[in-house]
Design goal:
two-stranded antiparallel ribbon, binds cytidine-5'-triphosphate, alpha/beta, about 25% helix, metal-binding, globular, Rossmann fold, 5 helices, decarboxylase, 8-stranded mixed sheet, binds calcium ion, 14 strands
Length: about 220
């Protein structure tokens, strides 16, 4: 359906996408994580593949599946594993879209054995994970780099801050204020903010449609 003119705009292009949460181990049976379903990232992968792109989808723990000859799914667990996978592929891609809900912190020490309950309170010390998106922004060359921003307040200001500090070409602001948007559901309400600070607000839509809108925005900005 995207090939009515007999040409796919992203044919021959390589696209890296991250999806889902990351799980940060506390001990062999427990982790720190979040409720990201991975749906948005998997939809972006399908939308890109349907435009002819060769997609590498790096996904944290997620029940989402996809079968498409243009999509290679790499399953990872932790932020560090996602970081390593992204850095393996980034050099050769044309577009990178980081939609994963990466854990910002991980337990500083991981116990070798299951931790037994003892006292009435228990404290876990956390340390920051690496910011994958920021690390790619710092080394990007030809790559068109897209990030997401999940905000509940001062949304535009915070999203623009991330666009600049992570050296992005485009950021997708995900408004958790709006009913029906965000984690778990099948709809999202997004605003695109470009490097030249153009803002394009979209209605509440299915994640499938949001993914298609995002790919069209990227095509526009890259003149593909
Ligand atoms: N991101 C990442 N690696 C991290 C944290 C975030 O690649 N360790 C990426 C996300 O995939 C997303 C973007 O950075 O594309 C913004 O994530 P978000 O959680 O909204 O922002 P943070 O920079 O983590 O800041 P905060 O959570 O404090 O708002
Ligand atoms: Ca974060």
């Amino acid at each position: 359906e995207n090939d009515v003119l007999g040409k796919l705009p992203l044919r021959g292009k390589k696209v890296l996408i991250t999806a889902g949460p990351t799980y940060e181990a506390i001990d062999p049976v427990r982790f720190v994580g979040n409720h990201s379903s991975g749906k948005m990232g998997f939809e972006i992968a399908k939308a890109a593949a349907n435009l002819g792109a060769e997609v590498t989808l790096v996904s944290g723990p997620s029940h989402q599946t996809v079968t498409h000859s243009f999509i290679n799914v790499i399953r990872v667990t932790s932020a560090q594993e996602m970081y390593d996978a992204c850095h393996n592929y980034f050099e050769n891609v044309d577009i990178a879209i980081l939609s994963a809900a990466v854990a910002d912190y991980r337990p500083k020490n991981v116990a070798d054995q299951k931790i037994k309950k003892k006292e009435s309170t228990f404290t876990i010390e956390l340390e920051k994970t690496k910011d994958i998106l920021k690390s790619l922004g710092a080394i990007k060359k030809q790559q068109f780099l897209v990030g997401f921003a999940l905000e509940t307040n001062n949304e535009l200001e915070f999203a623009k801050g991330k666009l600049v500090s992570k050296n992005l070409d485009l950021i997708v602001l995900n408004s958790l204020n709006d009913k029906g948007a965000g984690f778990g559901g099948s709809t999202n309400k997004v605003t695109f903010i470009t490097a030249s600070h153009d803002t394009i607000a979209h209605e509440l839509k299915s994640k499938t449609e949001v993914a298609q809108d995002l790919m069209q925005q990227i095509l526009k900005q890259t003149h593909a």
